[in-house]
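[step 3/7] inverse_fold.run input=structure_tokens len=331
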């Protein structure tokens, strides 16, 4: 979201300072889209309150930060973080503002564990996606959806990265995907496996010549596919395949295809006996992680899910595999 868009969205007594805060964030290299959207919600709340000019009182701030019905602890924590950062910014400028303590709010539950699909389940899902029929409302979905799901599993892409590929981002001659402005604001190059490149070549040929700035996976209206639509279709595929779903937030989720990709890659490397020390940075770069810290979380998951390789892995790579339970969701 551009500075101009933010400028038109802030309307409370603190609007000019909110604009200044967002500009400061973006000047430091942050896109600040999610934070900016949260700040706009806070601005709408403040517009309905009697707010002193250039002041952020304790009572009003605490009212906004109260946990809402059906709100998760994680969502509340995100609201607290944005308001805390903005309040500290106001204090730095010399304005009176209540800075909420970083430990307030509902306690976070960090026992999430991604649902890693088996190789058989992946084959089931991809086969089911190959049989999605076209509809009058979505006449190209039988061509598009099989390739989206294969990119999520075959390349470990985040869903938003796959959906926002442009035609120019997919070099089918060299077999390279360019992921632009991804998480952490970085671009990266992804070389899919040759069979997947060949599938994408056939897909592109079926759609015919297109402009370089068009979406590689266009919706029926020509824009990008909505993430919510993919979530809905993924749940339908799970049902068709008889893969049980644990309920909201428990998965399998679309994002678990990315987790599954990482674990299956590590499983393959373990079985091949390759040097994990040398390979882990490659996987981190492929996934778009800032460092190998996030990637290392998959090491324990892999040996936990495939105990038959755990002994061999511990002997060969014992100094690499983190010990203890892994309860944090990787990105």
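[step 3/7] decode complete -> sequence:
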């Amino acid at each position: 979201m551009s500075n101009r868009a933010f400028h038109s969205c802030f309307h409370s007594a603190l609007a000019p300072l909110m604009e200044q805060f967002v500009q400061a964030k973006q000047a430091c290299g942050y896109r600040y889209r999610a934070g900016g959207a949260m700040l706009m919600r806070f601005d709408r709340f403040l517009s309905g309150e009697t707010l002193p000019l250039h002041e952020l009182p304790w009572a009003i701030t605490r009212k906004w930060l109260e946990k809402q019905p059906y709100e998760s602890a994680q969502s509340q924590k995100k609201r607290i973080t944005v308001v805390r950062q903005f309040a500290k910014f106001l204090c730095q400028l010399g304005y009176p503002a209540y800075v909420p303590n970083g430990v307030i709010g509902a306690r976070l539950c960090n026992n999430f564990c991604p649902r890693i699909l088996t190789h058989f389940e992946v084959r089931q899902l991809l086969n089911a996606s190959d049989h999605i029929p076209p509809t009058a409302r979505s006449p190209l979905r039988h061509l598009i959806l099989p390739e989206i799901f294969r990119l999520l599993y075959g390349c470990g892409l985040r869903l938003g990265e796959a959906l926002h590929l442009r035609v120019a981002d997919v070099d089918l001659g060299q077999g390279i995907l360019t992921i632009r402005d991804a998480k952490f604001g970085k671009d990266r190059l992804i070389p899919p496996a040759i069979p997947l490149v060949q599938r994408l070549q056939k897909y592109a040929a079926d759609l015919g010549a297109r402009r370089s700035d068009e979406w590689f996976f266009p919706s029926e209206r020509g824009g990008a596919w909505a993430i919510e639509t993919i979530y809905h279709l993924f749940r339908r595929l799970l049902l068709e395949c008889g893969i049980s779903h644990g309920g909201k937030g428990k998965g399998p989720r679309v994002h678990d295809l990315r987790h599954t990709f990482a674990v299956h890659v590590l499983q393959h490397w373990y079985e091949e006996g390759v040097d994990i020390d040398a390979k882990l940075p490659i996987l981190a770069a492929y996934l778009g992680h800032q460092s190998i810290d996030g990637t290392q979380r998959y090491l324990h998951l892999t040996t936990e899910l495939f105990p038959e390789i755990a002994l061999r892995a511990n002997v060969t790579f014992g100094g690499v595999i983190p010990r203890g339970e892994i309860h944090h969701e990787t990105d």
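[step 4/7] annotate
The longest helix spans residues 73-92.
Residues 316-330 have pLDDT under 50 and may be disordered.
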